[in-house]
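URGENT: need a sanity check before tomorrow's submission.

F., can you look over the F-box/LRR-repeat protein 15/At3g58940/PEG3-like LRR domain-containing protein record below? I want to be sure the sequence and structure line up before it goes out.
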Amino acid sequence: MDLWKWRPHLVLDMKRILDKTPIGLWDKVSAHLASSMDKTFNKHSGNLESCIITYRCDGCTLQNWIRHATRVKHTKDLTLNYVHGRRPRRYTYRGTQMLDMPYEIFSHHSLTSLSLSGYTLLGGHAFTNCGNLKTLKLLNMVIFWVSTLTSVLAACSSLEVIVLQLAFSKDDSVLKIENKKLKFLQMSFLHYVKRIEVNAPCLDVLDIRDVKCENKNSFILTSPNIQFNQSDWISSLFYLPHISYNVSELAQETRNIWHDLLMSDFPGTTRQGTLSVSIDITNPKEVEILKELLLMWSTYTMIELEIFFKTNNAPREEEEDGECSNERLWEDANPFPNADFRVNNVWMYNLNSSNKEEFAFASRFVMQKTVIETLMIETSSCSDGVATVAKLMELPKGNEDLSVGWFR
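Structure tokens as predicted:
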């Protein structure tokens, strides 16, 4: 009977009961549920790793829960979801509950991850001095002013993960995201934004679900780890989702978090878009990460795949028999990443035809049915490009209509 009191994860959820309650009784039932949830919260013993509160009640009660979760329970990961009335699925953004919290309410040192869903945010004072937050998710929300979001993100100076699913009122402000620690950025904006400026020197993953700006030059990205063909990407950015991923040997826990975020689908969206990856193809661990990333697209449509080969002169790993393990990397005859993966067009940048692993990797895309239309190779010279394409064309094509070419 008392084991639950010591569990590190607590979920308080009104929605399951409200979904079965007539709308006319929601206020009465919500008040009763809030009282019950309050008693349950107070009975819990020990600290919390995570706490999810899905509710419909007044702001004063919510403030008390937030303070109890942070100041008393030292919760690390807090999720707040406001329950709205029933509406058709076509209503993606339903942030009609005003979020008006006191200054610094989210600034407790124990709180490192915060997720808010179903609110209208008028100001950013609740996020004052929130350098404690490493993860911030603002989902299914309305923010009147773009400048408010800029100030919120600036106040959360230690963010490593930002996930935004927002609608703005008409506003001519520039959205600025400047963070030296940011590694993962995911964005979906319902309305047009005049200009977006992202300055994140440590950014490894950029996931654009739906962004609309005034013109092609209105999205400015400063991030050395993110590589992509900007002219082609910008031209499609405002119509198709896009992901840029710097493949590296990240900790498994971090990769799992990013995997869940990339796989999450916002209501009403479909995964059909472009992917850019930077990878050392001679590194077996990075190849395995790339395989995981591509498999995530197996049930969606990939229009463009850009592969940027890293220049890596690090010594190769050797097996016990003295052979370099990387030389056997592409001996496996199984399709990469699997037999079901398809992409319309592939662009490979900085390919070194004398590098056996890179050429073997390109050969896979020719011999498999992976690429539907074109495979383009960037080479350092015209002669090298012609020679590389000739060698690839000698291979048996998995797709007879595949076109192979080079550029520089």
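My own read: The chain has three domains: 1-86, 90-234, 271-313+327-408. The two ends are 69 Å apart (CA to CA). If you see anything odd, call me.
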